[in-house]
From TrEMBL:
Residue ranges occupied by any Tyr recombinase domain in the UniProt entry: 112-323
Protein name: Tyrosine recombinase XerC
SUPFAM superfamilies: DNA breaking-rejoining enzymes (SSF56349)
Active-site residue list: 155, 190, 275, 278, 301, 310
Amino acid sequence: MADTPDSPSLPKPMQAWLQQLSAHQRYSAHTLAAYRQDLKHLLHAHPDTALERLTENHVRQALARLHAQGMQPRSLARALAAWRSFFRWWAPQAGLPSNPAEGVRAPKIPQSLPKALSVEQAQVLLDRPGLPTPNSAVDKRGQAMFEVLYGSGLRLAELVSLDVQAMRLPGYESTGWLQRDERLITVRGKGGKTRSVPLGRQAALAIEQWLAVRHEMLPPAASTLETIRHDPALVDIHAALFLGARGKRISPRVVQLQLDRLATLAGLPVGVHPHSLRHSFASHVLQSSHDLRAVQEMLGHANISTTQIYTRLDFQHLAQAYDQAHPRARRQTEATTNNQEEPD
C-alpha cells in the first residue's frame, strides 16, 4: 500500500515485521495491507513520539481516537491485535521492558452467526436445475471452483492459490495443491498452517471436466516446464489450477462475481459470497456428523472456540425444525397468538 502525504511511512522495525509475516508465515497480501494501515494509524495518533517510547496510555489514546472516528469494534480489535503482535515481536529485540499494547483490552465484538445456505439452497446452486449444463471453459471452471469451496470448506484465498500439483522450482513453491489420485487438497492457510482436506466426488468430477478444457485459457508460453523455468510469472500461470480469461491465475474478485451471477441465475433469494460456501460446508458437516474437532481440522481453525460458532448455527436450525414440526411447539405458538388477540 502506497504511503500518502498525510500518512507516515513505516519505521524500519515495522517494515521488517511485515516482511517477516510475508516471507516466513505466508500472510496474504490483503492481511498485510490491513496490518500496514493499522500500524500507520498508531503512528498517526502520536507523530512526535518515538516508537520505543510508546506506552500503554499512547495505545489506549490511539484506540480511542479510531473509535471516535467511527471505526467499528471488529476493526478496532484487529488494529489492537496488529499493534500487540508487532510489539511482541519487536520489544525483545529493542530491549523494551514490556509490550505497551499487551494490557489494553479489545472492544467487545458482537458475535454474529455466519451466513450459511440451507442444504436445499446449496443443492440448487450447484445442481443448477433449469439452467444449461456447463459447457464453456468459464462455466466448467466456475462449477469446479464452487464445488471445491462447498465440498472442502476452503477460504477464497486458499482456492485461488491452488496449483494443479505440488511444484517446487527456483523462486517458486506451491502453497496449495491438488492430489488427484488421493482425492485430497493440501493448503497452507492462516499462520502458515498446512492442512489436507478431502475432495468430494462431485468436486473431483467437476475438476476433471475443468482440467479437460483448462488448456483453452493457458498461454502457449506457459504450457510446458521447459519454457517456464526462467520466468517466475510463467511458472505461476503454468502451476495455477484455476486461470482467468487473460491467461493468468484467477483473481478473488472474478470468483466473487461469477458466484454472484450464478446465484442470481439460480434464483436464490440471498446474496452468495465465496465465504458463504465455507460457512455452509461447516454447518452441513456439523449437522450430519456432530464432530466439532473434525470440522475444526478441515476448516484450519487454530482454536476450537472459532469453530464453536457453528454449533449455534446448528442449534438455530434444530430450533426452527422443532418449531415447525413438533405438535407441542405449534400449540404453544397458537396459544400465544390467541392470548394476544383476547383482551384482558
